[in-house]
Amino acid sequence: MMDQGTHRPVNPQIYGWKDGGFATPRPSKKSNKCLVYFLTLVVILSILMLIFALAILRRVQAPRVVLNYVSMPNLSKINASTPSLNGTLVAEIDITNNNLGCFVYADSSIAFLYQNVTVGAANVTGGRVFARETGRVNVTARARPTNLLKESRNFSRDVGSGLLELRSYAEFVGRVHVVRIFKLRTSKLMNCTMTLHLASKAIQHLECL
């Protein structure tokens, strides 16, 4: 029978005891392997994302901008003696974004011209077109009389024929957002031609480059 004051010796291997005190537990080999696998996976994913982003950046292109529809329903009567163009031009602009990122464009303007004379203009509010989608913008331009039409030699002749050749210009400047990190600046100049039929007040032969 052991005395009450007698104690069994402590096994240092069980309690991690060393001469200087308790030993620091060593991390297991399994934990080290998990950490290595995790860091390797992070590096591989980062490289793949970088390659993917660079591939998209190389394929970024300017959007396609065209006039989808133009009308002039309240055109005032025009005669050769008083050369003027008075009415409202109603137009629809289609912006097609074929990129894999969102296209965000700033405020712009659209102008309608007869030869080199501006006969109507309107502001275009900035907006965005999502990836692989087409956005539509409605604009209304007021065509007002201008004395510059009197200086045109062909205006009276075209009025007599009942057909007016018009052009329209608009420039859209913006940025394509790729992977929410890269923002690539791009722009597109819209250039359209059309024929205004004075008798029916209809727009014919609408073509855009």
Automatic annotation (TrEMBL):
A single GO BP: defense response to other organism
Intracellular or extracellular location(s): Membrane
GO cellular component: plasma membrane
Keywords: Membrane, Transmembrane, Transmembrane helix
InterPro entries noted in UniProt: NDR1-like
Keyword Transmembrane helix part of the UniProt annotation: yes
Keyword presence, Membrane: yes
Protein name: Late embryogenesis abundant protein LEA-2 subgroup domain-containing protein
Organism the protein comes from: Rhododendron simsii (Sims's rhododendron)
